[in-house]
Amino acid sequence: MKTHPLRTVRLHLIRHGEVEGDWKGVFAGSRVDMGLSPAGHAQAGALADWLGGRKIDAVFSSPMLRVRQTMAPLLEREAPTPVLIDGLHEVDFGDFTGLRWEQVRERLGVTAVNWLHVLDHPGLPNGDSAAGLLDRVRPCVEQILATPGYASAAVFCHGGIVRAILAILMDLPFTKIGSFRMDYGSVTVVEVPVENPRAVQIGLLNFCPPAGLRER
User: Fold this and answer.
1) Kind of pairing, strands 201-207 and 58-61?
2) Is 94 in contact with 124 (CB distance < 8 Å)?
3) Are 28 and 34 in contact (CB under 8 A)?
4) Which among 4, 120, 121, 142 is most buried, taking Cβ atoms within 10 Å?
5) pLDDT in tens, the chain (216 residues)
6) Residues 6+ apart with CB under 8 A from 74
7) Sequence spans of domains, the chain
8) Taking the complete model, does pTM exceed 0.85, yes or no?
């Protein structure tokens, strides 16, 4: 009897480009739908150059503006029609929204070192908790993996969502994934056996394609 190999998909998990100036270095999250800075648009072009040299069969995306602007240059290259998934929107930072790190430290006593632990328990004040975030993103991951007909996909989203996807696939606490740096305009590539997603392998982590680079 002829057997068939288990299906493995390659996911390119992409954080959007740098945001426009007034919001750089500020907790914005899902409550602020800002666009990209000029540098962010350049990063989007570099991502399109790099992804254009790879076989991309499907595209999934957060509906937020900064993500759609990051995706736009790729879509100009006859890429697959994107599937917008609302659950891929960024973390709700609650009372952190609109504040810089130093303001969060001064007003709320939370530092860059321990904010993920606050997210994990009890959750951000009037915002997301790690458990709630993972509960929101998990069906998105299931939808992506259940979509037939592709072997390689681009998933355009946010730094917090890339971390959430990795936490789900690797079955790790969200706080552990905080050790993974996620820069603007970066791509993380994972190979996921659909029948056993937790056997995921990370092939590339936080790679920022330089302008003009084309890889085949």
Assistant:
1) unpaired
2) yes
3) yes
4) 120
5) 343 457 899 999 999 999 998 888 888 999 999 999 999 999 999 999 999 989 999 999 999 999 999 999 999 988 999 999 999 999 999 999 999 888 988 888 887 667 888 888 889 999 999 999 999 999 999 999 999 999 999 999 999 999 999 999 999 998 888 888 999 999 999 999 999 998 999 999 999 999 765 543
6) 47, 48, 51, 52, 56, 59, 154
7) 8-207
8) yes
